[in-house]
Amino acid sequence: VTTVLLLTPMLLYITKKMDVNPVPFLLSEIFASNIGGTATLIGDPPNIMIGSAAKLSFNEFLLNMGPIVMADLLVAILIVYVAYRNSIKVSPSKRAEIEKLIMGMDERDAIRDKELFRKSVIIILAIVLGFFLHDTLGVEPAVIALLGASAILLWSGFSPEEALEKVEWATLFFFGGLFLIVGALVETGFIDALAEKIISLIHSEAQAIFVISWFSAISSAIVDNIPLTATMIPLIKAMGSSINPYPLWWALSLGACLGGNGTAIGASANVVVIGIAHRESVRITFGEFLRVGAVIMFSTVAVGSLMLWVRYGL
Length: 314
Description:
Elements: H1 2-18, H2 23-36, H3 45-54, H4 58-84, H5 92-103, H6 114-137, H7 141-156, H8 160-164, H9 169-187, H10 190-199, H11 205-220, H12 225-239, H13 246-258, H14 268-279, H15 286-313
Helix pairs in contact: 1-2, 1-14, 2-4, 2-14, 3-12, 3-13, 4-15, 6-7, 10-12, 11-13, 11-15, 12-13, 13-15
């Protein structure tokens, strides 16, 4: 989310200047963000949960998930290019004009308040550092984010009313409603019962890799991946008595993180980018996202689960 919050406004500005359709580039940003987050221990919340439960190190995540992420990123770029190849090109007559326009841009011209800019950079760096260290400090990421927001609000001298007008309220209320629905599914035992039913069908390590990765991916495209991961962790631990659980952790990480690309509500980054784009009068419909996102989800999970099977299941 931090990544797309920083990149989306810049992407919208550049595509507007180039007079090209911003949707393919926004979707590419979303897919790359969700895929990239799979690579490291701190890249996505499910990885932090899995790493803590299974005592997996940062380097283990990088070595096991890094190659998969590189392959999946290439697959995603290819799919987006094929889907939008006719709408991302600039006509030869306009190419020279646009190149001159882009190369003539000075990033310093976009900074309207240099003092506030310096303060914001300091606070953002402190927040990102806090995200890296939140587990060591014993502080939730939400607390760090709110502390940073409060600090810059006080330091900047802006009135709270002026700042609150810029908040993405529609996105926040959407997340609130989504988490209520997911929480109800968790509390009623629906997700637990479904997960246990799926895992009861597993009889071998190779089969477990495919079942867990695909079940996690499809489920994460519909519900939030954090409660799903919390449900799957004890189930995988329980399987440790009959099957080596080590590759299953990577299967869970793969599915929980990459499943977010399946639908517009599959990951927080998706909703944030769509919300910012809508504010700038750029519409990304649920159907358009699903048309490309579902293909990317199925393709990347297929590649990733196959690579895990070759490494651990043969």
